[in-house]
From TrEMBL:
Superkingdom of the source species: Eukaryota
GO function terms (MF aspect): DNA binding; DNA-directed DNA polymerase activity; nucleotide binding
Source species of the chain: Trichomonas vaginalis (strain ATCC PRA-98 / G3)
Lineage: Eukaryota, Metamonada, Parabasalia, Trichomonadida, Trichomonadidae
Limits of the DNA-directed DNA polymerase family B mitochondria/virus domain: 6-384
GO biological process terms on file: DNA replication
Keywords for the protein's UniProt record, in alphabetical order: DNA replication, DNA-binding, DNA-directed DNA polymerase, Nucleotidyltransferase, Transferase
Family to which this protein belongs: Belongs to the DNA polymerase type-B family.
Protein name: DNA-directed DNA polymerase
Pfam families: DNA_pol_B_2 (PF03175)
E.C. number(s) listed in UniProt: 2.7.7.7
Claim: DNA-binding is one of the keywords in the record: yes
Amino acid sequence: MQITGIYKGKAIIIKDSYTVISTKLKKFPEMFHLQTGPKDSSCLLANDNRTGVISEACKFVQDVETFMKNIDLIENCRIDENHFNLEKYSSFYCKQDVRILREGFVKFRNDILKEFDLNVYDYVSICSIANKLFENRVYFPNGNLYDLSNKPREFISRCIQGGRCMLSDNKKQKSEKKLIADFDAVSLYPSAIARLYTLEGIPKVLKPEMLNSEYLLKHLFEDDQGESECDKFISGFFVLIKITDIKIKRHFPLITVDPELNPELKAKSTKDKAKDKATVPRSSNTCCLMYVDHIALQDLIKYQGISCEVLQGYYYDEKRDFRIRDEVKKLFELRLKYKKEENPLQENIKLILNSIYGKTILSPIESKIQIIDDKDAVRYAIRNYNHIIKFEGLDGSDKTIFKLTKSICRHFNFCPLGVNILSMSKRIMNEVFCTIEDLGLQAFYQDTDSMHIYNEYIPKLAAEFKKRYGRELIGKNLGQFHSDFAEITKGKQSLAYKSIFCGKKTYIDLLTNDLNEVAFHCRMKGVKQDVIALTANEMFPEAVKCVYDEDKGLMIPQGKYDKDSEFSVMKLYEALHSSQEIAFDLCKSSAPCFEEKFNFSITTKNTFIRKLKF
């Protein structure tokens, strides 16, 4: 995001640095090797005169010694023995934050400019930077790759399917006293690109005689085929299919049910159709209409034995360009080299690697914002009334803010590549999941690039995977997997001793290691970690309390305990697992809860209740 304007005849551009470097500011010094002084992490109290009370503040700061030194180091900050000027104290650290942000961003810009000859100031987001890099190295040198707009873009974009996130059989799961690993894919999207290609030419509408899966797959290129041959002349396709039969039922189905495309699968219990809910889960063994590309269709037939009718679609019949594979591998190897050297540039390359596909599936921007002087607002409204969605006076100014519709007929993107990347990433996961199921093993949960599986299953899984696909499953290279729970103590692998899975993105793992330490890895979509801990401690005061450690990304128990003790956060998830409704006040977080309004005014919310039930 960026805002442009004119001030005293000078062009001003205000950029959102977070869209370029999506990392917390506290990590900048380590990420970019910046010099910064010690800083206490505090939650400070003040009276109406903006005077801080030292004795009260010391109850909240994590490093009291550093806090006391800073009060004396900051000019005119200390008032007396027990009071300090909170405004001067806060102002000093605001300036420190701005300095660190600037130095980090400039370092990032200089590194990218030196390594890739791209000026970060010219781009809005990291996705734009990654896209430009691949335009220079892959797309433009080919000369026969095309962005799409209008109907072809709209149709092919319907084939976009995000990563699968589900519980086994879409049912709540629980495991106790048997170690579980968080088995993660290494750089899933770069791994997918490393097995891919770009489709040359422009898409063509499928002819009537081509509307069946047998014909399309018979004439589809082989995986590593680059040019058309007499019988293999289709380089790729994107189609709408109707699944009529499913021979293999999976615990983690490949089929994605879109309720908008399959209205008969929607509940009809409400008068408001927008509130109607799907009667079947999004990932399920259900016959339905589905948009797919050639990669997804191959997997549906191979792993679920589907039969289908092809209703309509587009196909490509020119070359496949494989140079994108080489470029992503070069970037990955370059990152490994810099990581080994402890060069902060490795973090920049990591950001680019994970952002390559984002711009290719960019959705149309359907609205825009204009800020007009109040004196010109009526005239502007009269001239643009057909496009105005809403307008409002800009808070505390003589301006009016207008939200207008924006034409999407000129929106272009490279969605064929984006769709193929997402489908290939799912193939990488399907190869592992279907091997697990075919061996009769159990996986509990998947969230895009990771799975929860019993640790003792991994050697057997790796052996069968090598037998089937001729590749090593475990490792740290593209296309491989590794166990990835956060470590309680550095160098000591964590595994889950107990786990509770309530729903999508709502689960908890009781982690332990060789030192018999205990911590909790928990997720709850829409609820912050410290709110989870606070709510659990309030609901179950008799259990062992837990606090969130932001640096480790884990919940840490307090007091005396062992791994079989009763912990407040585990009891909270047990209550959710047993279908109890629990209310969370999101404003209890240590971070303030703001509400941003259309007119750019910002208010602090005092309470924001979110109720969850599974």
